[in-house]
Amino acid sequence: MTEEPGSTATLNPRLQEIADDFHDVPDKDRLQLLLEFSQDLPALPERYAGRRDLMEPVPECQTPLFLAVEVEPGGPRTVHLFFDAPAEAPTTRGFAAILHAGLDGLDAGEVLATPPEFSSQLGLADMVSPLRLRGMAAMLSRIKRQVRERLAAQ
Fold first, then answer.
1. Which of 51, 75, 98, 152 has a CA-to-CA distance to 36 between 20 and 30 Å?
2. Which of helix, strand or coil describes residue 119?
3. CA neighbor of 116 nearest in space, from 21, 23, 9
4. How far apart are the first and last CA of the chain?
5. Considering the entire predicted model, what is its pTM?
6. Contact residues for 137 (Cβ-Cβ < 8 A; gap 6+)
7. Tens of each residue's pLDDT in the chain, 154 residues
C-alpha cells in the first residue's frame, strides 16, 4: 500500500517538497530520482572523514552506513547531519541524501516532528525492498534519538 503525500503526519516543507517530487514523476522514474539524490550526498567534513569511530552505524541498512548528528547549542538549536555511505550503494546513499536535504539545518523540534513513516510517502514501496525502506526508517530513528540525546546534554 502506497501512501499519498500528506496522508499521514505533516512533513516540514522541505521533506514535503521531496515527497511531492517523487509523486510528480511516473513510477518508472522514481528510482532514477533516488539515484540522482545519491549523487548529491555531501562529502564528510574533515573531522569525520575516515573516522567512523565518531559516527553511529546503522546496521539495518543493507550496506555499511554511518551517521553523526550535531545540534548547535543555544537557540535556535540547529541540527546538522553527516552520512558516510559507499558510492557503490546508491539506494542507501539516496535515502541518506533525502534525509540530509530534508532535515539538515532545521531546528531540532522540526527534526523530531518528522513522522517515522516518512519513507512510505516517497512512493517507493513497490520498487525497493522492505529491508531497504526499514534501513531509511532506522536512519531517521537514530537521527531523532541523537537529537534528543544532544538536547538533553545541553
1. 51
2. helix
3. 9
4. 41
5. 0.91
6. 60, 116, 117, 118, 119
7. 333 333 446 899 999 999 999 999 998 899 999 999 999 999 999 999 999 999 999 999 889 999 999 999 887 899 999 999 999 999 999 999 999 999 999 999 999 999 988 888 899 988 888 888 899 999 999 999 999 999 999 8
Element housing 63 (H / E): none
**What angle do the packed helices 130-153 and 90-103 form, to 10 degrees?**
40
Residue in 63, 71, 72, 78 with CA at minimum distance from that of residue 139: 63
Q: By CB neighbour count within 10 A (0-12 exposed, 13-18 middle, 19+ buried), where does 43 fall? A: exposed
Neighbours of 50 (CB within 10 A): 9
User: Cell for 12?
Assistant: 516540514
Q: Which of 35, 46, 88 is nearest to 68 (CA)?
A: 46
Residues 6+ apart with CB under 8 A from 18: 98, 101, 102, 122
